[in-house]
Amino acid sequence: MEKRIALELRGRNPSQIKELNLDNCRSTTIVGLTDEYINLEILSLNNAGLTTLKGFPTLPKLRKLELSDNRISNGLNFLNGCKKLTHLNLSGNKIAKLETLKPLEEFENLKNLDLFNNEVTNIEDYRNRVFALHPSLKYLDGFDKEDGEAEDSSGEDEDEMNGNNDSEEDSDVDDEEDDDLSLSAVYNTKLEEESSEGSLYEGSAEEEEVEEEDDEDGDGDNDDDKPNSKAQAGKENSHGEPEESTRGKKRKHEDEDEN
């Protein structure tokens, strides 16, 4: 058992352990399990070959104890240091008398007790007498007082041990969905910005092309206007100023002749 405990520790401090599985470790007595496991909540010692619980440590936070398929016939008083115990599995042991169960009266939180495949179950009116002995008990051998089957508590125990519950799981899912939505929104926004920038770039490029074409057209128009201007200028020179100059000369000549 000591070697198995050391293996299960994996270098951790005993006070860090919340669940410990020592099934099939084969030991007739409790060895290597000490009071250092102050935060231990679930302990499993199924089919370990135990014949006595002598030396069982004080485990103030232990809630669930599995001791099925051993050879325990008495000595349940050695569990008195586990006041928070709610689930106790003693099925497949050697318990034959109701008096052996007497020490369990001190476990005020005990709700689930399994004595299946023990000789004590053959006692007349066994179920009613055990329920009367332990008022806090809700399930015996997997059934309540009205023979209603017990709910599976394994998932609930794991959630409690890990500090989780349904609402926290739902919250985590919601957070993940929110994160996904946020990432998607950021991605879409980025795409829109890139698309907008591309459109702006294309628009400005088109505007530049249009401006260049306008400039080219403007240059062509100016070139066409130049010959016309020259022609116009030439025409004015041939029919305008020269004519006025010639007429002026004729008038001057006529005036001189008259004189």
List the helices and strands and how they pair.
Layout (H helix, E strand, L loop, with lengths): L1 H8 L9 E3 L20 E3 L19 E3 L20 E3 L22 E3 L11 H8 L5 E2 L13 H8 L4 H74 L1 H18 L1
Parallel strand pairs: 1-2, 2-3, 3-4, 4-5, 5-6
Helix pairs in contact: 4-5
Quickly list its features.
5 helices, 45% helix, 259 residues, 6-stranded parallel beta sheet, alpha/beta
What this model shows, in words?
- The protein is an alpha/beta fold and 259 residues long.
- It has five helices and six strands; from the N terminus they run αβββββαβααα.
- The chain has helices spanning 2-9, 126-133, 154-161, 166-239, 241-258; strands spanning 19-21, 42-44, 64-66, 87-89, 112-114, 139-140.
- A six-stranded parallel β-sheet has the order 1-2-3-4-5-6, with helices on one face.
- Strand 5 (112-114), helix 2 (126-133) and strand 6 form a beta-alpha-beta unit.
- Helix 4 (166-239) runs parallel beside helix 5 (241-258).
- The longest helix has 74 residues, at 166-239.
- It is globular, with a radius of gyration of 52 Å.
- The N and C termini lie far apart (158 Å).
- Residues 160-171, 177-181 and 220-254 have low confidence and may be disordered.
Quick overview of this protein structure:
By secondary structure, the chain is α/β, with parallel strands linked by helices.
